[in-house]
Design goal:
The protein is 22% helix and 25% strand. The protein is of the alpha/beta class. A hairpin with a 2-residue loop joins strand 1 and strand 2. The structure holds zinc ion.
Length: 218
């Protein structure tokens, strides 16, 4: 269990093995929620920063995969936002497309409140975030970008050392390459991925990583 303050309004939470990184923004919004495998620990993490699960108003899912979306159900007051192309498999509880079967689970149907599109803006507290559709890992994968502070939540599109799997349902190597190119066109100082280490305040490192990944995707 790991909790770390990234910025005044952003807290990194890792509830346990196999769980993804989740991020609490402005005390009322979560980026991804997890696998439900360590749900007591996840709730404990949330409570440890003074937040009750009922306080969570919004969940933004970076993509449809089970390990990022399954624990959405723990936050009963939250509206769920996801890219339109990854929304249907959540709404229909598709165990294949959400990858639930890989965890020996069945996906539960979830209600999506808002379907996101490339270039949408979302305001969380005082901060404007831009949705960037970055297909490759899944068709409806998104990165969430704070242009002012150059912070990128990258989901399973890119991690601190590699890019996300492209061999799953709706994954595509060609799309991944284009998405990495898209990310090269913006300034990123802090990378907050869906798994593994975060990279803070190091634009050079992130830029070098993206150039390397672009070469690797062939
Ligand atoms: Zn994934």
């Amino acid at each position: 269990m790991k909790i770390k303050k990234i910025a005044k309004d952003i807290i990194y939470i890792h509830a346990g093995s196999m769980e993804p990184n989740i991020y609490l923004i402005n005390n009322d919004t979560l980026i991804d929620t997890g696998l439900c495998l360590h749900k007591e620990r996840l709730i404990k993490c949330i409570k440890s920063v003074g937040i009750e699960p009922e306080n969570i108003k919004t969940i933004i899912n970076t993509h449809c995969h089970h390990d990022h979306t399954s624990a959405n159900v723990l936050f009963t007051n939250a509206k769920i936002l996801i890219h339109e192309k990854d929304a249907f498999c959540i709404e229909s509880g598709d165990s294949l497309k959400t990858g639930a079967f890989m965890f020996g689970k069945e996906a539960k149907k979830q209600k999506i409140s808002l379907k996101l599109h490339d270039n949408d803006s979302i305001r969380i507290g005082d901060v404007k975030f831009t949705i960037i559709n970055t297909p490759g890992h899944t068709d409806g994968s998104i990165c969430i970008y704070d242009e002012k502070r150059q912070i990128l939540f990258s989901g399973d599109t890119i991690f601190s050392e590699t890019y996300g799997r492209v061999d799953l349902e709706s994954g595509s190597k060609k799309d991944m390459k284009n998405s990495i190119e898209k990310l090269l066109s913006i300034k990123i100082k802090t990378l907050l991925p869906g798994h593994g280490d975060v990279i803070e305040n190091n634009e050079h490192k992130i830029n070098t990583l993206l150039h390397e990944l672009k070469k690797e995707v062939y």
